[in-house]
Structures are given as C-alpha cells and as structure tokens.
Amino acid sequence: MRAPLIVIEGLDRTGKSTQTAKLCHRLNGFLVKFPNRETPIGKLLNQYLTDASNPMPLEVAHLLFSANRWEMVKNIEDLLSKGTPVVMDRYVYSGVAYSMAKGLDIEWCLAPDKGLPKPDVTIFLKANDLDSISQREGFGEERYEVASLQTSVRNNFEILRSRYDEWKVIIIDGKDIDQVHEHIWELVCPLTRGVTTGLNRF
Ligand code: 2DT
Ligand code: MG
C-alpha cells in the first residue's frame, strides 16, 4: 500500500495554488509546486520567467523544467511509500503544453520526462472564459501570461487529455473556491484509502 500522487493542472490564474493548498491540507499531504524556484535549477527558471529579456533558448528552458522535476523524484517516492499523499501544482503536462505552444514537438517534449512517476489522478481546472482569466489580479507579470499563448497552451492540454486516461476535467467558470474544492475532493476521495498498485511511469 502506498499513498496517491495527485496532480492539478491548468492555465495561469485558474486557482491551482489555492486548490492544491486546500487539498493538501485536507489530505494531510505534501505539496510540490513546479517549477520549484528554490533549487539551483529553479533559480535559473525563475530568472527566465521573470525577465523577458533573458535570452535562454526554449529547448534549454524545457530541459531545465524537466530537470527541476527529476530533482524531486527521490523525495516524492519516499513520501508516497511512507504513506504521505503528494499533491502537485503543475507537472509534466505543463512542461509539454507550454513548450509545444512555443513550437516544440510533443514527442521531443515528453522524452526528458520519460521515467518520472505518473500521477494516479490528474485534475485539469478548465476555464472556458479565457478573458476572465486574463483579468485576474497579477496576470501579465510573467513571460507566458499573454492571451495568445494561453489559447495555444489550452489546446495542447486538450491533446494531452485525450492521450492520458487518468485525466479529469473540472470546469471552473461560475464556481467559487469551495465548490471547486468539493469537486476535486469527490475525485480524490476514492484514493485516500491508499493505492495497492505500484507507481506507473511516463
Ligand atoms: P507558475 O505560474 O505555476 O509558477 O508557473 N511551465 C511550468 C513551463 O513552461 N514548463 C514546466 O515544466 C512547468 C512546470 C508555466 C510558471 C510558468 O512556468 C510554465 C507557467
Ligand atoms: Mg503563473
């Protein structure tokens, strides 16, 4: 028996931080946010994301995002095997969806993440109304927070959703924080008794 690995994905400003924190608290789990900006690689990524004049090639950025996940694997596997649920705020799918939006090929994007633990459930917070997202506080502060890129990222998330069967979608338009949380809880609840199968891998 091991604890579940739960991923919450979505575009910028769809409430992932709020929802992952709330879920983690209820589960008594461990929260992992990607990119993790605290590690040496994460610091490079933070510079890249916050400074639009940073000339890093997009392939390099992609590989650093992936490396930033690999840095955490041992830690995550230990937690799961000891019975602590792990909740992730973004993961492999953000890596692929954002890099594809910048023109990279899907298989190329997935390759460096091959072997990473696969989530037991991936919950996609989907906003049908993208205009309301770009009006949320703080939107536009970072490199990828541009409406045209968000539209492309959303299409890429749809491609990934049809490819991976652990995906669940929650439409967030018109729902408040607690309503979205309860919906997430319904999806996660069956996993809280523990998971009997081993971890799958990408
Ligand atoms: P936050 O706004 O959630 O801090 O993300 N991103 C993220 C990628 O391009 N590749 C990745 O592998 C990951 C995890 C999405 C900052 C931005 O980083 C993007 C938005
Ligand atoms: Mg962001």
From TrEMBL:
Keyword terms: ATP-binding, Kinase, Nucleotide biosynthesis, Nucleotide-binding, Transferase
GO molecular function: ATP binding; dTMP kinase activity; dUMP kinase activity; nucleoside diphosphate kinase activity
EC number in record: 2.7.4.9
Domain Thymidylate kinase-like: 8-184
InterPro entries in alphabetical order: P-loop_NTPase, Thymidylate_kin-like_dom, Thymidylate_kin_CS, Thymidylate_kinase
Gene Ontology process terms (BP): dTDP biosynthetic process; dTTP biosynthetic process; dUDP biosynthetic process
GO cellular component: cytosol; nucleus
Pfam families recorded: Thymidylate_kin
Listed pathway(s): Pyrimidine metabolism; dTTP biosynthesis
Enzyme kind, highest EC tier: transferase
Entry-linked PANTHER family: THYMIDYLATE KINASE (PTHR10344:SF1)
Family the entry assigns: Belongs to the thymidylate kinase family.
Protein name according to UniProt: dTMP kinase
Organism of origin: Komagataella phaffii (strain GS115 / ATCC 20864)
Taxonomic lineage from the root: Eukaryota, Fungi, Dikarya, Ascomycota, Saccharomycotina
